[in-house]
Amino acid sequence: MRGENWRFWFPVVLLLLFAGYSSQKLVRAHINPDVDDIDYTFERDLPGCRGSIYGSLGKSYPLAKSVPLWEYRLDPVALTNCVVKPKGAPPRTRGEISDTIAEALGLDRVKVRKMVYNTANRYQFLAMSSDPVAHKTLCDSHLVAGVRIEDTQVRQYLQGRLLSHVLGSVNAESVGSAGIELRYNRELTGVPGKIRGMKDARRHEIYDRRIETIAPLPGADIYLTIDHNVQYEVESALKWGLEEFGAASGWCVVMDPATGAILALASRPDFDPLAFGRASDAAKVNRVTNFTYEPGSVMKVITVAGAIDMGLVRADTKYTTNRNDERYYRLPGDGSHVWEPFMSIRDAIVHSSNIVIGKLGCDLGPERLWTFMRKFGFGEKTGIEIPGEECGLLPPWRKWDKVKWSRAPIGQGVSVTAIQLCSAYQAIANDGLRMKPYIVEKILNHKGEEVYRHTPTPAGRPIKESTAREMRKIMLGVASPAGTARRAAIRGYSVAGKTGTAQKVVNGHYSDSLFRATFCGMVPASDPKLVILVTLDFDEKRKFHQGGNSSGPVFRRIATGLLRYLMIPPDRPEELSDFDDDDEMSDDNPFKPNKSSNLVDYISNTIKGLQSSLIR
Are 62 and 188 in contact (CB under 8 A)? Predict the structure, then answer.
């Protein structure tokens, strides 16, 4: 019998011992027996002020900067439970405390009193302020109670939506979310400091009982190559072009051909940097660097430049305009245009003939054409300091079918970014030397010491100097009365450029009604100081959807404004002698007659000129 009792109680005792051991372990995990008293001290990081972003004009005109602020919230329960007693005076009432809070922050007294008596709602937002006097008042426990203070900073974008795709945005934690803010987030972020002080029973800091404060170090300042005045001119002209011609979106980039510096970069639709999270996906896309598309006829310049550089053709070399030439496989057409039996390479660029350039591309061959496209920077990232840059699509030439032999030369079957295309034209403007595009000029630390400065960097020489100059001469005819970009001409300045009207792909087929219209030009052509690319993207059928009729006038508006602002002298001053500059520059028609002349005389003289040319 005794053996049976032993067998019963033995497992029971083991279970009790295990339960007791487990219980004491759990208790010891929650209670530290070494703590004799509650510690009301605390220590936390103090974030450093984020660095600023400036344009090319320097510190006088900041583009983005952070302002240190204090965020004030009201806890009515804490205010009610505290006794606020100034030295040598009776305790203060809740009404008096609320009036002090309202006066310090410039708030409505009645509103603050309602907040004080609303004990059901704790930590009500009062205000954000950078006023040190208000901060000193609200930190004084002998004057107020129940006010919770947090150190914070607010990012300000001084130019509003201007440069939104370049600057980007920051999130609620002041971490970069897009653009330069994201790319240089580490440099812009400051070194945090330290705060050691006392906290109350609810673990809130008692501001007037700070023990130690180690000030944080602000972040570095970024200086861009962009002048905000130039950017405003570009964005205004682009907005006008979208409204005037009914485009759904558009983009523009302006580059210094000598260095590769970006002078302006705009993309529409844009967004408010302070509301980046609420912007649509379409508005967030930087269409200059992060969007690829088929360029269309602007790519013909690359084809011709490669052929001339190899000595395959000259500007006056003529090709037949017969599309059904048996020597070539499935040539592209020229629409309803009717040409003379023969056309020179120069005229093929001026009139944008798909047939002639398609034949030239076949003669050049896919390997050599692909090689020149790569030399001009297509199919790879340019390395510009904007996150998310695309590299485009340029398949290896061995994978090209025979149809692509004549389509790639005219800008079909390959995709590019706007920055790649502008960079390629920059090489032609810079006598064949391509420069790496850049948008960050320098970086200064919090002491004002220079930690980085960009040095203009060559990215290769795709063509010889003589070829580049010959190409500029050929491209002069595009912005002439006989060319496809008559409306891009600027009186007093020579313009070398090329239009492109690329069909958009819809459901795997080229659309007959939807286009992307581009004009890329350099001015003055004799010694280029600006390379400007403009593209308008149409989602609906529009009358003026061609590059010359839509993007050309936008180019002209931009170039006219920048030539004046940058004080670039005209290279054709004789064209200005008989014309009023202000009147000429403000009109979109490049061939407007002198306003002092009679309209009937102008028409009569034009007809006589046409008659004399027909007689000759």
Answer: no
